[in-house]
Structures are given as structure tokens and as C-alpha cells.
């Protein structure tokens, strides 16, 4: 039965069946949670050997005693390993503390208030500073900019990345647009991978932008594949070097969803000129990152083969969970009520429901004991103008819990959609 | 022989003896370092059990899985332990990452640009923002303010703390003075402890200050005593509660010189209203501090008895080093060339040489293979107007190395002083 092709009588019949189904869910006193893109305890346990792995040897390969002060840029062995991870040279990366979000905040803060190697700070260029925000996107990215007084300009997110026609037109017209937020592989929340063409156009973008333009390339899910044949991401830094725009790229990564989510290491990859400027500023607020934890990570992960082997173990835990969601969502096939992504990696499935229903569906699910990410969270200031995007994060619950939670979600989508259609017809 | 009472002939004789002594030091090809207030490898090894102490148990006492995301304010067991450490209640402290300097930077940044619970941000109050800097003081404190665009106003540091007559007069006269930097126990670099009367006057200070005044109370050496009977520090927070100024105090501490210098945990103690405001801002730049390391610290230190026992082991390593410096410095007794502090705790000995000679002496020592902290480092922007303060940090070298380094230093002080006196007489 397709929503728009049903008669009012059919819809009424459907509504009463769905209402009974929903009431049954409510009566079951569920307590399920699909809100946060965080690893499960099983995933975290894959890295338990981190604690104690140093075995009393606190010296890095160059003799650096990681227990003491110093080495703001991170230890050499970690810079070499994570340079390979980020596909850059060791002098093109610094390794920091447990949060790549902090690195994004700091780079944006310094660009906003302190200055950049090639020009004065954004805030001193006369006029409100703006940033492009592909939507739906990651709420915490948007929060960084907003907290620093930067205005977010939403641009559409397509299946192959941000809408580059729109991006280029905006950037060419307004030199106060100083950057763009990107999660290029398994984007949060849609799970898409930027196409080669989008990456190439992004690498050229600084050529038409104002002074001090920066692409914030948060490659948070670079190795977080669910399928061996998931699409690869083009190398933006190599392209940018070719186009003379390498200084306009900040690339971020971390081991947060590789080892311990709250106690990994994060890194910033960029040209040596950008890193030198960053260290100059960040050195006023800290002596060094936690180098002991950096050395733990080097000893535990060993090399990129170690990283990939660990990510396969994660995939083995995550894939059945994603499959469970998609299996349940297939109950919405051909009803004209929703569309969703089938990501090949990352942590999220993004569902678009009928306009005006996202908030209501999230509330209905909550009332039946299924917590979902607040509707609108994927838009700047939490405001989805069409009120239609919902993010599902299935990493933490067990497969049976996910089946149940998604079943409830599907009931909510159907019931809300049928009621909306009935209201329209009356 | 006293410098000013010596005849020119005596001075010339002295100069040639000292020049020979200095040349002998130079010929010895020394490579000694008294620059940084950092622990020695022996001290760091006292805490090697930190790595591996969790033994696979990553749950805090309330069941919090410390490996995962969340708990921006720090884990409950760490808040309880470090609340005792800072003599506050558990809801008056948050536990953070490995750097208290970062907490100082963040609190100052938010006060400068974002706002405070009771008023708008300092930078929005119309007029250049100023901070009082007791001198000599800690260069990294001064750096935080300067990087944030805050002007430093030097005030004199006496044997009992900052010159409070001067402090009160300045604060009462200028509402744009928004705070004061304090290292109240074993001050960096003079090693003095603020007297009860100074602490009480500081606790009252906000009553005569402008809006949003904050005392930055960096109690970095609270437990870092060299002598069991070292003077205690009055409880500024208790006094401030009495005077109604508790919201004007930010207190900082860390385990940097207790466990691993570069990989400890830091904390901010303040009123719940201040902490709430802080978390609101800092939450835009991070999900959580490294809670695994917090739990390691709780399991390792156990309680305040554990902290004190560990600090006694540190003192056993530090005390002979300080004694070695003081023993050598006694060679300058009654010469009219220098005065110095005899600290009962902390990491530094502060030497005042004759005006105009500090830079020269530091250079002479360097030329003889003894690295000292750059002269002026203890003043805002590295500018000691009298060019006379030199900071000695004897924690890292061995006792024989310290004896040798201080011997060289003493020769440099004498030679520079005699030459200056000779130049005056000619």
C-alpha cells in the first residue's frame, strides 16, 4: 500500500492497525537507545591491551622520555605512524591529545582571533566571518563555529558530497566565507563518500576564495569500513599540492573509534607552514600532549596493518548491527514515507521522513522507550527547516535490541505519515 | 672581601683570579642544565606503576566505562580525590586532561571572549583588559594573558606574597583590571608562601574590583614541600566564602609534578556556578577529558595519604639537590653581589644579582657549558627592567652535576660583579 494512492477508508483502517501496534510497543516498557555514534563495550575491549602495554619502557625510539614535559608536536614514532594513516609526510602532521574536536576548535580559534601564516586573523578582515555547513552534517562541527562567532551558511549535501555548484557560487561571491566543514568518507550522518570530482573541486576551491580560506577535512571515519569494497576517498592533499592550495587544507583524524573513544589520540595534518603557526599559538596553552598515551598507541597499533586488522574486528561487530537496521527499514520500502542511506562505513544511517514529521517521530519513539538523536541535530543550531532528517546510530545496542528499536521506529514513521496524510485529506 | 669596600688594586687582583677560574671551567667542556622546573627520571619512575594499574577493569566506582565518550566534568572518583587535594567539595571541582595551563588558558579565554556567570565578557566591557602580574613570576602565566590580548601590569612580589598595598590601589583605581596571577605556595620562582594576611586581603580584593574580577590561584606546588615544617597556606576559598567573593576565585592544580609531568591530570576548583559556565563553553571543543588516565590516577594515588607518601619520596630526591645549590651559593655570602631565596618547597631558587648583570651572567654560564633559564623569563614579555633576576631549577641534574653547575654560576656572578665595579671606578 502506497501512502498517496490509498483511499481515506484504507488510511483510516491502516491508522487503527498502526495505533494498536504502537500501543503494544508502548506497553512493552522498552528502554533502547540509538542516539550516539559511540563504540560498544565489545568494541572498546578490542583495545584493552593499551593499558600496561609499555611494560616499564617509557622511551620513544629516539630516546624521548615520554613521561616528562616537552615535545608539543607529538612523539616521532606517533608522527610517523599517523602520517601513514593520514597519507602525509611525518613533518606534515602533529599528534595531540584525545580529541580531534579540540584541534578543530583550536585551529578555528587561532584563524579567527590570532592569524594565519599568509594573512591577518579572519575576525580582523572587516565583516562577519562565515563558514559553509553541508547539511545534514555533524552538530559538533557547527557548534565549534557558532561558539567562535562564525556564521554558518548551509549548503546541500548530495550523494557524492556537498553541492559543489552551490559551494563555488557562494565562495566566489563572498570573500568572508572562510571555510567549509567536511566529513569526506562515510559522512556524518548520511554515510556517503565524497566523489573524486567533488574532492578535486574542493581542492581547487581556495583559488576562488578570500584570504585565509581553509577546508576543514575531518576524516573521522577514514578506516571505518563495513564492506571490504567500500568506495575509496581521493587524496585531497595530493591534489591541493598540484593546484597550489595545500596551505588551505587542515586534515583531522583520531583513534577515537579505533581504540578508546574517550582516550585515544588525535592528529592534525597540514603543511609545515600551517603546523608551525599552529604550534606557535597552541604552545601558549599547553606544554605538551599526553605522550605516554601516544607511545601506548604506537606500541599497540604497531603499523597500518595493525590499524586495518583492528578495524576488521570493529567491522565484524558493527556490520550485523547496520544490517539489522536496514532489514527493518525495508518495511518502509515503496510506501512513499521515507528514504534512507545504506552506508558502506561510518557510524550512522540517515533517514529522511516526510517534511514536518521528524520531531514528531522522534518524540513518538521516545514515548515508546526508544531514544533517538534529537531531530534537527544534524543542522546548524538544531534547526532542520523541513523537519525531516533523523539520524540512527546502531553501534551500541545488541542486534536483538536494534531489531526491536528499529521496529518501533518503523511503526512511528508509518503512523505519523498516515496521520499526516489523513489530516491533509480532511 | 666585600665588592664595594675593595680597592681597585684588590678588584684587579680578584678579577684576574676569577678570570682564570672561569677559563678553567670553560676548558672543562661542561654540559649542564638548570633551566626547566621538571622532574628527574628518578622522580618519574616513582609513578611507573600507573601504566597497567587498571588490570582490565575500566569501570569507575559508579559503573562509568572510562574508555568511552562522555563525562566532561571528570569521573566521580577523581573529583572526590582531587576535591580533597584542593580542599573543596566534589561539586566544586572538575577534573580535566594533562595540563592545568590549558585550564587557565580556557578560563581566561572564556572570560575574555564568551562571558561570565555574573556579567558580559571582559573584552565587551569597553577598554583594554588588564591583569596584575606579580614579578618575578611564571612566564607561562604571563604568556596566556598576552596571547589573549590582555595587558599585564607588573606588581612587586614581596617575601609574603604580592605587595597588597600596590595591588589594592591599582584594582580600586581601574575596573578594567580583571584579575591577578598567583602561585601562592612555593611561588615560581621565588619559592615564598603567601602569608595569611596576604591571602585574606586577596580574598577581599574582589569587593573593590570591577565586574567579573577573577583571582587565578595556581596552587601548582601545594604538596611539593622540601621540609616537613614548611609554612602552610591559608584557605582562600573558605575566606572568600566568608566574604562573599567565592565566585571570584579560580583554583588550579595538577599531578604534573606528582606523577608523570607530561601525562598527569589537571583540575579546576571553583563555585558550581563558575564550573557550570566553564563546562558550557568547553563542551564546544571536546567531548570529555581522558577518563582512563583519571582512573589510573585514582587507583594509583588511592587517597590523600597516598599523595603525601609519594611527595615524601619526591622530597627525598629533591632536598639534596636544593641543598647542593644553597651550599654553593653560600660562596656569595657577604660579598654584596647577590641575594637568593631558600625555599621550603617547590622547584626553584631565585637569585637577584646586581642590576644590569643577569643577562650577562646567564650568557657567561652558557659559554662555560651551564644552561640557565633566560634572564628576564620571570617578567612579562621577558623584560626584567633591572636585569637582575635569575631562576635556578635544580631538579633534574645529579647532585655532583648541580655542585659543578652552581660552582660555575658562582664564578660567573663574581666575575661579572667585579668587572662591573671596576668599570664604575675607572
Give the overall average pLDDT of chain A: 96
Spatial order of the strands forming the largest sheet of chain A: 2-9-8-7-6-3-4-5
Biggest interface, which chains? A-B, 53 and 53 residues
CATH superfamily of the largest domain in chain A: Type I PLP-dependent aspartate aminotransferase-like (Major domain)
List the quaternary state of the chains: homodimer
| Main sheet specs of chain A | 8 strands, mixed
How many beta-strand runs of chain A?
13
What count of structural domains of chain A?
A: 2
Q: Report the radius of gyration of chain A as a whole number of Å.
A: 23 Å
* DSSP helix fraction of chain A: 40-55%
Span between termini of chain A: 20 Å
Order of helices and strands of chain A, N to C?
A: HEHHEHEHEEHEHEHEEHHHEEHEEH
The gross shape of chain A turns out to be globular
| The CATH architecture of the largest domain in chain A | 3-Layer(aba) Sandwich
The CATH class label of the largest domain in chain A is Alpha Beta
How many helices of chain A? The count is 13
